[in-house]
Amino acid sequence: xxxxxxxxxxxxxxxxxxxxxxxxxxxxxxxxxxxxxxxxxxxxxxxxxxxxxxxxxxxxxxxxxxxxxxxxxxxxxxxxxxxxxxxxxxxxxxxxxxxxxxxxxxxxxxxxxxxxxxxxxxxxxxxxxxxxxxxxxxxxxxxxxxxxxxxxxxxxxxxxxxxxxxxxxxxxxxxxxxxxxxxxxxxxxxxxxxxxxxxxxxxxxxxxxxxxxxxxxxxxxxxxxxxxxxxxxxxxxxxxxxxxxxxxxxxxxxxxxxxxxxxxxxxxxxxxxxxxxxxxxxxxxxxxxxxxxxxxxxxxxxxxxxxxxxxxxxxxxxxxxxxxxxxxxxxxxxxxxxxxxxxxxxxxxxxxxxxxxxxxxxxxxxxxxxxxxxxxxxxxxxxxxxxxxxxxxxxxxxxxxxxxxxxxxxxxxxxxxxxxxxxxxxxxx
Length: 429
Ligand code: HEC
Ligand code: HEC
Hints:
Blueprint: H1 4-7, H2 13-33, H3 50-55, H4 60-74, H5 90-96, E1 101-103, E2 106-109, H6 111-115, H7 117-120, H8 159-168, H9 183-209, H10 225-241, H11 259-271, H12 278-281, H13 296-318, H14 325-348, H15 371-380, H16 396-408, H17 423-428
Antiparallel strand pairs: 1-2
């Protein structure tokens, strides 16, 4: 069958809303008779990416279409169902998903809801109830961008990278270590992160695809499997499938290396024009260089606020212009969009926060403290963050020199701090 919606038996949110109304009526009759039932919490649902849909100016029926396609393809938080083509293990997803449940043998599933969703949100949008209190904010998996991994900058993390993040946590952030969970549970959670991320990126793809529609499509996306898979889903799932091939090729650290000379060379590179680490990490290495930039997730929201402000200014000016009826109608549509976008941003995005370059004198690294981890970070930079890749500007053996210098910094008590910056100043950072 060619139509994905028919191909999977879906309950659309509209249908659900109707069922709810019906339920309300039935309950209204039942409750006075039998004071049981109807007291259950509603099933968890995925939240639509309203920031993106508002940005793309989708109509509510287009939003509805996206929601229906997503449910057909990916199921619900309680009943996740990944299309076989994307290569996820549905048994693992089942273990990670759903409400927290236990039986006589102990807890069986609901792992994500138990351990992750209060930070990362049921949808994986990084907006669980705890998120607003944290800095940095928990990761929003939906853009499919991950920071701490062994692959080239633009590539997805490998499965093992995700497992490592879960085992070790991200030191210096509120992302905890889940080392006490069994291997099977960690595996299931890593798979579930991939599922949420692929689902989120497909959602973005669908929302952006409306922009490319022809007039004859009349604002409705094609629902053929061919369109959905070839145009939207495959490009995302293929990136995950080839992550293992994108692992950074790391040359061995030169044997018989003179460590003192290597550290000195690394220091020169750190302050030099080529690597220019000093620009952000500061003359002191305390992370007090350029600190007014945002990571990608915050930048999207920051720029959306700017768009709204700019459009509001423009609208204010336009209000005094003479306009034809047609122009006046367009102007009203614009104002209505502006109003909605502003409300959506207030209710669906966390306040943007600038990102701080790492204080390199503490020896605390999110992505791991092995020399290899630092090599990965410096070679590829940090995807989604302003930290650039040294690949291409600094030859591989010199990256090792920078690694050695970075590793010496926490012990460099006579370094560049000078008498005017006593050590206590450093401890306060
Ligand atoms: C107390 C809050 C909290 C909890 C609970 C939590 N995380 Fe996180 N997580 C974070 C924060 C904060 C970050 C982002 C850190 C950063 O950007 O430096 C993060 C980042 C991540 C990342 C992204 C790593 C990368 O390379 O970009 C993954 C994957 C992740 N968490 C998975 C999980 C999973 C799975 C669980 C549950 C088993 C979980 N987290 C539980 C706060 C949390
Ligand atoms: C444009 C600014 C910028 C430049 C240039 C820059 N960094 Fe960074 N760096 C950052 C930011 C911001 C972070 C924090 C990223 C995050 O937490 O996601 C960071 C993080 C780091 C980390 C911590 C990684 C971890 O696992 O926690 C190291 C190490 C690092 N940078 C080293 C370097 C080195 C070495 C150079 C020069 C080759 C460099 N940086 C150049 C902005 C920069």
